[in-house]
Structures are given as structure tokens and as C-alpha cells.
Amino acid sequence: MNLLNLLRKYYSSITTVDYRKLANRLSEFWGNPPENRCCYHYSLTNSYCGRKLLRGSDMCFWHSKTQEKYKADIIREYFGFADNLKDVIEKEISNKGSLEGAYLSGASIEENFFGGGVNLSNANLYKADLSRSHLSYGSLSSANLGNANLESSYLSYVDLNNADFTGTRLFNVKFSNNDFTTVKGLSKNNFFGWNNFLPVYRILEKYPEQSQPIYRKLIKYFSNEGNIDDASWAAFRERIQYRKLLYKDFKGGLSIILIKYLHRNYNLLQFIILWILIKIKSFFQLIFSYACSLVFGYGEKPFRVIITSMITIVIYAFIYSYFDVIKESDFHTSLYFSIVTFTTLGYGDLLPKKQFRLLTGTEALTGIVLTGLFLFTLSRRTVSRN
Fold first, then answer.
1. How does strand 41-42 pair with strand 47-48?
2. Domain 302-382 adopts which CATH fold?
């Protein structure tokens, strides 16, 4: 398909004369696309792909956007030397072939820990679509993944040494036992995506026992890079994974306790008592974790402390007004008294009735605690974790 036909296909409202003028200008810049060859244009090298076309497609095997091409017979027909995707990809990379813009969405090219996954070391995967692909146990060492789409892909046990993730989409990716120490271009924005209609930044969190260590490594990576806000985001998500683990422990049955402490030779009654104690401990840990998230975002969200403080002041003001804690019990005066008490200013112009002194003391204590939490969370967001 020549450039003129391509322009007619995508810009049907342009006149033939305009087509020719635009085609001539683009041809001068890009050069003429090859006849009966893949006309995908590489933005990095300013050239065309030029590979032979996939049967029934106007693109080559790599740039054709069809799931049918993953079938063994189609791979064998196109390449002639193999019928599996792993072998042809590794052969293409070893021959220095560019996979820029390659469509590999949903491709399953992982094996296992012993057999090893696909080797994409030094591959040019710029703008490649690898979403929902299975790349576990393989290697992306020194690969160029700039602006590539890896959304919802599986990268467990993948070697990421010196990989370039500039602009790469990593939302909902399954990581496990990965090392980010030497990767390039990684930031919180890589993990942006949509959960229904809500924007969210995260990796796959279905398995918190695997995602929690990954967030810890991201905290270290962002801290070393000086990205304080990104490190704070990773720290908050890590605490959420910890909360999920607490919930799993709380839901765990007696059989889990039996397996965990089987070597202790406890009798059944001791196991039951141990299970009850662990349940109680997990319950209070879970409640405390939810409270920490709500009040100060695990030390990462100072704005939540401000909101909590404002709500606390208003609630106490309603209580003071309703129960006539002070002589002037209108809400405006009660709100003023609540603010003064919360901030422990103690002007002395308003005093609580004798029976309510303990109540006002609790607000003062709450104000001291929330002020300390605000300073703590603010310092974590403005000072490097190193």
C-alpha cells in the first residue's frame, strides 16, 4: 500500500490535490514506503519496517494487530524455522531486528523458573504493545521500553537490569522478585491507570505477599533518585498491602494455625486458645491500620490530618453547644472555644463547666496528637527518606 492510498484511507475529507501535495512532502521527509512490504514507520530511525507482509494483513507479523498470529501454524508459515513465539522473538533480537511498535498484546511467552522465559535483552521495544503479555522468568536487561505498553502484563522473576522505562505504561503489572536498582526512567506516572472510572496508580495487588516487597523496592529506588513524592506514594501502597495481609490473617482458619505451629507439639485446646489470641491480635491490628490510613495516610498524607482536625473541632463544637458546656452555648461561640481548646491556646475568656472539664481535656489531648501527626507526615513528604 503506497503513501497516497494510506492518506486517502485516514483522511477521506482531503481532496486529491491536497493528498498529492501532502504525500510529496512526507515522502521527502520519510522516503517512499516499500511496495508490498510492511509500511510501519519507525520514529527513532525515521525509516520503514519493510518486512514481508503477514498473510491477510497489510502489516508484517510483528506489527499486525491480530491475536490469530500467535497460532503455531501461522508462526511456522511466516518464519519457516519455528512454531513458537519465544524462539522467533529471540531470533529476531539476536539478528538485531527492531521490535519498535511491535504488537504482542496478550502473548504468552513465559515458561517457568527452571526452563527460563523469553530473552528480550537489548531489545528495541519502543512503543511496543506488550499489554496482558506473559513474560515471566525472562529477561528485559538493557531493553528499550520507552513509551511501551505493558499494562496488566506478567513480569515475575524478570531481569530488569538497565531497562529503560521512560514513559512505559506499567499499570496493574504483576511484579515478583524484581530488582529496580539500575532501571532508568521509572516514576509514579508509569503506574497510572483507571479502576472503573477512578484514576489510580498501582501494580497488580491481588497477591499482597508479592506486591508488598515490590513497593518496598520502589521506595528505595525513588528515594535514591530523590523523587520524594514518588517514594511517598510507594510507601502508602506498601502499607495497604500490609493491611491486606493482616486481613488474610484475620480471616485465616484454625487449619492455618495448625500448619504454622505443628512443630510445637501443642494439644488441640492449646491450638484453639492460640487461634483465638491471634484472631484478637489481628483484629486490633487491622482496626489500628484502618485508623492510621484514615487519619494520616500511614504518615504519607498530611492533608488527611488537616481534614481530621477540622472534623474533630466541629464535632466537639456541636457537643459543647448541645450540652451547654460553656455559659454562651451558641454554636459560633462553641466553635471558637473548640478551636482554642484544640490548639491548647487557653485564652481563659471562656471556661467549661466543672462537670465537663475532662471532656475539654480530651479535645486538647487530641489536638496535641494530631498536631504531632501533621508535623510528622509533613516532614516525611518534604525530607528525603535517605
1. antiparallel
2. Helix Hairpins (1.10.287)
3-state helix, strand, coil in the chain (%, to 5): 50, 10, 40
Q: Residue 184 pairs with which residues in a beta bridge?
A: 164
What's the confidence (pLDDT) of residue 6?
A: 55
Task: Tell me the whole-structure pTM to 2 decimals.
Answer: 0.84
Which residue, among 320, 374, 326, has the nearest Cα to 350 in the 3D structure? 326
Q: Cα 160 to chain center, whole Å?
A: 17
Q: Which three cell numbers stand for residue 52?
A: 514481508
Per-domain residue ranges of the chain: 53-204, 302-382
Residues 277-304 have pLDDT tens digits of 888 988 999 999 999 999 999 999 999 9
How many Å separate Cα 189 from the centre of its chain?
Answer: 8
Residue 159 β-bridge partners: 139
Q: Contact at 8 Å (CB) between 63 and 103? A: yes
**Which pLDDT belongs to residue 54?**
94
**CATH code of domain 53-204:** 2.160.20.80
Q: Which residues pair with 164 in a beta bridge?
A: 144, 184
Give which of 117, 160, 123, 109 is closest to 138, Cα–Cα.
Answer: 117
